[in-house]
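ok so for the tutorial part 2 we go from a plain amino acid sequence to predicted structure tokens. step 1 is just haveing the sequence, like this:
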Amino acid sequence: MSTRQCVPWTGLRPMMPNMMPRVMQGKNPRVFYNTGHGHLGWTLSAATAEGVTALVEASEMTNN
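step 2 — the prediction. this is what the tokens look like for a chain of 64 residues:
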């Protein structure tokens, strides 16, 4: 196998400057963000998933 046509690529993960993920409702009330975990993605994923779930549930209660 030749590596002549190899294209360098990195799998950089988005991260906020303060290293805290962004878990929030967007301007569109049907869009929620759960991003910016950086290298702590697997570590924080369960907690932030619970956080975004709470946001979605609260949004459903206020919109009904």
